[in-house]
Amino acid sequence: MNKAYLNIIAAAGLWGCIGLFLKLLTAAGLTSMQGVAMRSLVGAVFYGLFLFFSNREALRVDPKDCGWFLGTGVCSLLFFNWCYFNAITLSSMSVAAVLLYTSPVFVTLMSALFFREAVTPVKLIALIVTFSGCVLVTGLFPLGQTPISAKTILFGLGSGFGYALYSIFGKFVLKKYAPSTVTFYTILFCALFSLPLSGIQNNLAALGDWRAWAGALGVGLLCCALPYHLYTAGLRDAEPGKAAILATLEPFVAAALGILLFREEVTPYKLLGMAAILGAVLLLNVPSKRTQPSKPSLEI
């Protein structure tokens, strides 16, 4: 397995830890969208300081390219979070998570359109196995009795589409900028637009709680800046479709942490789902004798 895919798997693992820190933010009295705002703000500030002292060149961008960062930071990162939390509010974490992980389907289709990335039988099998694994891990199967509304489905599919857009916009902008530059401006644009939308200025009392800042530091550094840097670095040399499927290791990690740290229920369905996700990751990394598709010639 090459370094690019290892970076993506490491990013997915860190994203799987989000729940640990979101519990602190929730306990402090912050709403979901305020948590998103704190996550992006902390991530942007600390990652920006890191680049300022270690690689100032990474902070230089052509103002004409800000549209690409609007794509990664607002159309993707902020939009998918907004849709995702709305889906959670209207239904449950399980339903929202399964709908979010329709993202590899969107990435695969858009990658075939924009990058001429081959849709191979192995990739199709991995998509089916991955989605099935997510359904099992999140506990959506066996089916419950509560029907899923059309509004929930739209928000859920919106979250998957927004999540997928990062791989597409990111692949284009990486033709011109380093992963560190793309990561910083993605998080910065998300912070700039999410802060006024979150209404956090009306909930300043919650920021006096140590749990708010402990959670924000954890979710901002370990679950935002670092994993997005790793994912973006991996995306530079990886097929977007494969990257999106590998990123679905996130619910596997989240489920494992829930079992180990919070004594969540262990069911045969959950174990089968975890095995399915891990199996799909291994399947995608079986060496192929086929040559890689040519890189897109489109320039920004």
Molecular structure report:
With 300 residues, the chain is mainly alpha-helical. Helices cover 73% and strands 0% of the residues. It contains 13 helices and no strands. It is globular, with a radius of gyration of 19 Å. The model is unreliable at 290-300 (pLDDT under 50).
Map the helices and strands.
Layout: H1 3-15, H2 18-27, H3 32-54, H4 66-90, H5 93-100, H6 103-114, H7 121-137, H8 150-173, H9 179-198, H10 210-237, H11 240-246, H12 249-262, H13 268-284
Helix pairs in contact: 1-10, 1-12, 2-10, 3-9, 3-10, 4-5, 4-8, 4-9, 5-8, 6-8, 6-11, 7-13, 8-11, 9-10, 12-13
Structural class: mainly alpha
Share in β-strands? under 5%
Unreliable runs, pLDDT <50, ≥5 residues?
Answer: 290-300
- How big is the Rg? 19 Å
Number of strands: 0
The biggest sheet, with number of strands, parallel, antiparallel or mixed sense and barrel status, is: none
- Helix percent reads over 70%
User: Helix count, per DSSP?
Assistant: 13
Give the SSE order as H and E letters: HHHHHHHHHHHHH
Mean pLDDT: 84
Overall outline: globular
Distance between the termini: 30 Å
